[in-house]
Amino acid sequence: MPQRTGYWRRLKTLTWVIYDISDDKVRLYVSGICKKYGLYRVQKSAFLGTINNNQLDSLAVECEEIIAEEDSVFVFPVCDSCFKETRLIGKGFDRDLVRDRVGVYFV
Q1: E strands within 1-107?
Q2: 25, 79, 94, 105: most buried, per Cβ within 10 A?
């Protein structure tokens, strides 16, 4: 994959981080990484927020360095138009928190 540079690296991208980690200490550390990058917890093991591509890469590297082989961390960058098509069924997450922080409104 070609190296991303310049303006493209500074663009903010809506990003989901979802993880399945068995060790409590490691799970707490990964949640701290997500918070450090300004992501907001929307469920117990799911964070959402806007970060630039440098931050996205750094977050992924930090998580990769700490998790065990049997654990998983999914980092999903999502375009604005795709996120607007998201269907929320049930409570899901705190709509007000996500709406206030991310700038997306649900119908």
Answers
A1: 12-20, 40-43, 46-52, 72-78
A2: 94
